[in-house]
């Protein structure tokens, strides 16, 4: 039914897919019946929550066969959401205080064809909310340049320990390495917890290092403050690249023999074959590594 | 009235009541029953460690002997939950160490366990008996050494599928010679490199454990050691072998065969790493007694599998690779009429082309031939609505049905239609269905069927399915018994979620990743529902650095009386009253 679309890193499509059928359904479905509200004013005094549908709504089938639900609102509740579902089925965001500050455009990464800004006071919403919403990532939308076969994280849903069993089995056959998952732990000096990456989803050192930069960016810069500016992808990325490629950290890995080597010295395939874990190390600690890596290569040749 | 019975009598009566639900019901009868019950409850199961705090648990149940905790959401098994998310057991162990000196059992699933916590367990509880660490991580063999050394009465040490860092050393030798109480030892997740000292420590340990009933070895234990172990433990009921391959020497084979025939109580077999088909007949003598066979670590092909399985007439549970193929499953359907559970795993899921002939036919055959089949996990590459109709018709007694068609959004390969009708038949016919995982091409219609018919469904897993919010709406409004809902890569958004907010308090948890739930909706939900923790997990940076209508990467919502947790990493934000004020 749906064709996988091209996606950028965040998972937004570059085209808006046709979703008229479902949008029609959605339009007819969200009807607040005012008389229901009055009928339910008694119930409104109960200790209930203010959100629509917070008690089991009585359902009536309407002509389209879709179950219409009536929303109840208790007196003291913030009516923001129920206001939003108005008769015409449009879902408008109310001009609440928390929207006022959002004069921010989508980040440049969003390549939606249409203007997709949702700013303050924007009640005018296209007829289908779904059309504006960014698309979900599909099987190809992993965001990294595809390896031999593009792999979606966590799909098919197989436990890691099984994959590692399969990995050893697969390597015995003449499979391209890209068809096998290889999760390695990545630790960073000073970070409170480590991460895991599947190095077979990358096909070059550049991809691996930029993925790691994104993953660990929150540690090197510190917590993003509440100022929106720091969160801009462009700014944070360039700062991080400076940190990683500049002086502070180097990327190292532990190989099959248990030795720690600098990443980048050997061809990529050799690296994925022998890498057992990764460590982002402070440059000052990594001084002894380079000569050994070269020495080892010489020994292996 | 309650005071017509002395407390001691009521306590005695309550001691026969074991199930959690019954205990909970007892505690609701009246205040005095609540009080009596809470003092005599010995066992507790906490399905989400963040739903409650150690302090609350201890305050209500001061005399527990057995605690079970679960941490990370299920999708953590597939690497969808970033490392560092949470699920730390240390605060629990700290609190229980002080409050429950007589604690005997600790069962953890998907939690992060440190060596310090293990050491604390080993030293705080004098009568500690059972430690089960299922899919846990964060600890090393040093932590295991503390357990081995200090738990004098240890009965069970079960590390099933945990991620243990092997620091070498020889932790098995830390079990004192005086330790003879072991009943169950599962170390199958440990590494494949072991020293000779470790192996001999293992042999001695097994030799001095006359009550050992369950032994699951790791890959490091070579085949020629297995016979020795079996001879020292002929009373075993469950065995997981180590590596099942070696040079084919006749004496090894006959030794092994003899050892197996000595184990007359064996009911369950697993392990079989690197199994060589010619070695398999060594187990034939005990096959007729087997009820459970797990070959999901073995690369055995169809014909050898069939030979083995046809010896196991009493099999109730079979886990196997898709090497078994349709033909093997047909043979299974012929020989194993007591089969209750079947799991078929993919041997090469990332291959572009199928490497085996495993299709919907295999599962249909089993559904026809095995009248007691109630639990299915099946990975394959193609399916049809007709096959699902047949399975549903044959097996209305299904309670767990998980079908994974490997390529997302794959339609019925004959009609090219979505598989809505097929899964609809499953939920309509299988009235006792408690767990369901969907796959293939699916529209909102399948969710309409599920919402209408799956009234006993407790856990539902959805991926790459649906067209709109309607899908989610049907599930949340229709599935009365739903406790756990996990969704990935579906176009479900704010409307359905917000319209069914109250439903979320009746469930344990909801996971949604790569869907269309906006940050604004998350904030609203968090503000309005104080007894829900609404966690936004987003590795792109703080959600307020993007417009509010932007979807969040991942969303985990669970009911809790503990309030927002305090141990969140940098990429997790809890939506609550406070956050909304801070961000506005």
TrEMBL record, chain A:
- Spell out the residue ranges making up region: Disordered: 1-67, 115-143
> Where in or outside the cell is it found?
Nucleus
What keywords would UniProt list here? Auxin signaling pathway, Nucleus, Repressor, Transcription, Transcription regulation
Please report which protein family the annotation says this sequence is part of: Belongs to the Aux/IAA family.
Name any Gene Ontology BP term: auxin-activated signaling pathway
Quote the protein name from its UniProt record.
Answer: Auxin-responsive protein
The PB1 domain is annotated at: 181-283
The reply to whether Transcription figures as a keyword in the UniProt entry is: yes
Chief site of localization = nucleus
The record describes its quaternary structure and partners as: Homodimers and heterodimers.
Q: What does this protein do?
A: Aux/IAA proteins are short-lived transcriptional factors that function as repressors of early auxin response genes at low auxin concentrations.
Feature: compositional bias, Basic and acidic residues: 56-65, 124-134
Automatic annotation (TrEMBL), chain B:
Q: Which domain of life is it from?
A: Eukaryota
Keyword terms of this UniProt record: Auxin signaling pathway, Developmental protein, Nucleus, Ubl conjugation pathway
Location of this chain's protein in the cell: Nucleus
Tell me the ranges covered by the F-box domain, including all copies: 5-46
Q: What processes in GO biological process is this protein linked to?
A: auxin-activated signaling pathway; pollen maturation; SCF-dependent proteasomal ubiquitin-dependent protein catabolic process
GO cellular component terms given for this protein: nucleus; SCF ubiquitin ligase complex
Q: What is its main location?
A: nucleus
Q: Which GO terms describe its molecular function?
A: auxin binding
The record's annotation in InterPro entries points to: COI1_F-box, F-box-like_dom_sf, F-box_dom, Leu-rich_rpt, Leu-rich_rpt_Cys-con_subtyp, LRR_dom_sf, Transp_inhibit
Which pathway does the UniProt entry assign to this protein? Answer: Protein modification; protein ubiquitination
Q: What is this protein called?
A: COI1, F-box
Give the source lineage, highest ranks first: Eukaryota, Viridiplantae, Streptophyta, Embryophyta, Tracheophyta
């Amino acid at each position: 039914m749906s064709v996988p679309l091209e996606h950028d890193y965040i998972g937004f499509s570059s085209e808006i897919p046709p979703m008229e059928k479902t949008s029609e359904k959605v339009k007819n479905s969200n009807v607040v019946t005012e008389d229901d509200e009055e009928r339910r004013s008694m119930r409104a005094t109960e200790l209930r929550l203010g959100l629509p549908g917070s008690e089991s709504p009585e359902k009536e089938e309407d002509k389209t066969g879709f179950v219409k639900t009536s929303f109840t609102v208790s007196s003291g509740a913030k009516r923001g959401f129920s206001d939003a579902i108005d008769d015409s089925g449009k879902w408008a965001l109310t001009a609440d205080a928390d929207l006022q500050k959002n004069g921010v455009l989508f980040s440049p990464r969003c390549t939606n064809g249409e203007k997709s800004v949702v700013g303050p006071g924007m009640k005018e919403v296209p007829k289908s909310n779904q059309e504006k919403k960014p698309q979900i990532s599909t099987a190809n939308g992993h965001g990294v340049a595809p390896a031999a076969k593009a792999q979606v994280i966590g799909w098919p849903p197989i436990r890691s320990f099984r994959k590692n069993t399969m990995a050893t089995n697969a390597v015995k056959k003449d499979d391209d390495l890209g068809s096998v998952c290889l999760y390695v732990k990545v630790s960073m000096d000073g970070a409170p917890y480590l991460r895991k990456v599947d190095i077979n989803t990358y096909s070059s050192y550049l991809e691996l290092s930029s993925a790691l930069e994104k993953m660990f960016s929150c540690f090197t810069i510190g917590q993003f403050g509440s100022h929106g500016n720091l969160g801009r992808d462009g700014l944070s990325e360039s700062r991080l690249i400076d940190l990683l490629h500049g002086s502070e950290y180097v990327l190292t890995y532990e190989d099959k023999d248990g030795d720690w080597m600098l990443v980048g010295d050997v061809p990529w395939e050799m690296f994925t074959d022998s890498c057992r874990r990764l460590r982002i190390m402070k440059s000052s600690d990594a001084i002894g590594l380079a000569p050994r890596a070269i020495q080892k290569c010489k020994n292996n040749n | 009235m309650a005071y017509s019975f002395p407390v001691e009598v009521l306590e005695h009566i309550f001691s026969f009541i074991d199930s959690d639900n019954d205990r909970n019901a007892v505690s609701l009868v009246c205040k005095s029953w609540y009080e009596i019950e809470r003092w005599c409850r010995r066992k507790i199961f906490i399905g989400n460690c963040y739903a409650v705090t150690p302090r609350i648990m201890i305050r209500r149940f001061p005399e527990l002997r057995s605690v079970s905790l679960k941490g990370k959401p299920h999708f953590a098994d597939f690497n969808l939950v970033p490392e560092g998310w949470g699920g730390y057991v240390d605060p629990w162990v700290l609190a229980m160490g002080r409050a429950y000196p007589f604690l005997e059992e600790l069962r953890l699933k998907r939690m992060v366990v440190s060596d310090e916590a293990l050491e604390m367990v080993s030293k705080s509880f004098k009568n500690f008996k059972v430690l089960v660490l299922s899919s846990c991580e964060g600890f090393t063999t040093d932590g295991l050494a503390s357990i081995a050394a200090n738990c004098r009465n240890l009965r069970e040490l079960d590390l099933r599928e945990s991620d243990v860092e092997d620091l070498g050393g020889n932790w098995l030798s830390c079990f004192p010679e005086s330790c003879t109480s072991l009943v169950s030892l599962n170390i199958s997740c440990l590494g494949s490199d072991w020293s000779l000292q470790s192996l001999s420590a293992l042999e001695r340990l097994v030799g001095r454990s006359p009550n050992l009933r369950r032994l699951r070895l790791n890959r490091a234990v070579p085949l020629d050691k297995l016979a020795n172990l079996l001879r020292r433990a002929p009373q075993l009921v469950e065995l997981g072998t180590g590596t099942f391959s070696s040079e084919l020497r006749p004496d090894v084979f006959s030794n092994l065969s003899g050892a197996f025939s000595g184990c007359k109580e064996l009911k369950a077999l697993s392990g079989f790493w690197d199994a060589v088909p010619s070695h398999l007949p060594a187990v034939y003598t005990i096959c007729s007694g087997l009820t459970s066979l797990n070959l999901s670590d073995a690369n055995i092909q169809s014909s050898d599998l069939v030979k083995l399985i046809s010896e196991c007439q009493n099999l109730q549970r079979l886990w196997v690779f898709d090497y078994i193929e349709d033909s093997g499953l047909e043979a299974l359907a012929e020989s194993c009429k007591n089969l209750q559970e079947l799991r078929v795993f993919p041997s090469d899921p990332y291959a572009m082309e199928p490497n085996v002939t495993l299709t919907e036919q295999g599962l249909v055959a089993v559904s026809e031939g095995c009248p007691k089949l109630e639990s299915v996990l099946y990975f394959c590459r193609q399916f049809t609505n007709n096959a699902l109709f047949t399975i549903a018709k044959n097996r209305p007694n299904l309670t767990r049905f998980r079908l994974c068609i490997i390529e997302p959004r794959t339609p019925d390969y004959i009609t090219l239609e979505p598989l809505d009708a097929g899964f609809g038949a499953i939920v309509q016919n299988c009235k006792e269905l408690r767990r369901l995982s969907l796959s293939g091409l699916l529209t909102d219609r399948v969710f309409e069927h599920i919402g209408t018919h799956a009234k006993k469904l407790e856990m539902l897993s959805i991926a790459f399915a649906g067209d709109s919010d309607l899908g989610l709406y049907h599930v949340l409004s229709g599935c009365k018994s739903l406790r756990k809902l996990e969704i990935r890569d579906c176009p479900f958004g704010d409307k359905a979620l917000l319209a069914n907010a109250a439903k979320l308090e009746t469930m344990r948890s909801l996971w949604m990743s790569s869907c269309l739930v906006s940050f604004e909706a998350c904030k609203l939900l968090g503000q309005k529902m104080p007894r829900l923790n609404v966690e936004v997990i987003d590795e792109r940076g703080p959600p307020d650095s993007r417009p509010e209508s932007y979807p969040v990467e991942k969303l985990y919502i669970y009911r809790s009386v503990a309030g927002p947790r305090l141990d969140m990493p940098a990429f997790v934000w809890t939506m609550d009253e406070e956050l909304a004020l801070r961000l506005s």
